[in-house]
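Private note to self, pasted from the team thread so I don't lose it. Backbone tokens:
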């Protein structure tokens, strides 16, 4: 066990601002399973993408308690935005340009280099938000990164932040919001395992975690609420078989 990592000044500043905002808004962030996030060495953090502030729920505990940086994969539109570009540069995110095969390969290779260097790399296997708030079909990128770098995958599930800011819900709950975060037991993928099969294994585990979090959520699942999945009697539309776009890569 090596010495405790020292958090860079840029991350300490970001953490201070986020903590202040969360406390002013009186969010109640409940974190469980942080022991599954390695204190040293690389790992892929595979998280469900259900809100525009997923990064807060994902990084809240690892940054504040483990003093670890997180390398997010951020698409080109975020880098180019004058509102968000400064933020992804400040946290040294990995740029993702999906306009060409060579650009996607460059992003994939950069993520693998970061993992081999001992970083935590955050990946959303769904790559987009769904109106049903159920898990979409997963892309295989998270698994292939872990295989190439020889690191574990930590499944991460968040629930609640989509009530504040997401793509398909106009009603917002900015204050006194309960947010649940669960880190699951790491998945270890053999280099020769079929990436598609391993990705399905990851998705199955994250589905279990999602259902557990939803069932124990402090505000429950109010009937007809737009942020609650149809499976639980909520107002979100049921999953569409066409969700998820093209086939996993």
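Design output:
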């Amino acid at each position: 066990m090596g010495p405790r990592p020292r958090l860079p000044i840029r991350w300490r500043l970001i953490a201070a601002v986020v903590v202040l905002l969360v406390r002013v808004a009186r969010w109640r962030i409940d974190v469980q399973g942080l022991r599954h996030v390695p204190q040293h060495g690389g790992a892929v953090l595979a998280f469900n993408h259900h809100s525009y502030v997923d990064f807060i729920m994902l990084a809240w505990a690892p940054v504040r308690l483990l003093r670890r940086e997180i390398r997010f994969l951020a698409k080109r539109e975020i880098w180019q935005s004058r509102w968000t570009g400064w933020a992804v540069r400040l946290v040294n995110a990995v740029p993702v340009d999906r306009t060409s095969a060579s650009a996607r390969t460059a992003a994939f290779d950069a993520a693998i280099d970061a993992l081999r260097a001992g970083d935590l790399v955050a990946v959303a296997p769904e790559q987009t938000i769904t109106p049903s708030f159920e898990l979409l079909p997963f892309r295989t990128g998270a698994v292939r990164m872990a295989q190439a770098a020889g690191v574990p995958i930590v499944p991460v599930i968040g629930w609640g932040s989509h009530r504040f800011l997401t793509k398909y819900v106009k009603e917002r709950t900015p204050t006194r919001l309960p947010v649940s975060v669960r880190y699951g037991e790491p998945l270890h993928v053999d280099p020769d395992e079929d990436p598609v099969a391993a990705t399905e294994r990851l998705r199955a585990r994250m589905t279990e975690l999602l259902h557990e979090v939803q069932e124990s959520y402090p505000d429950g699942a109010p009937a007809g609420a737009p942020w609650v999945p149809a499976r639980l009697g909520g107002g979100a539309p049921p999953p569409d078989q066409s969700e998820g776009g093209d086939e996993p890569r």
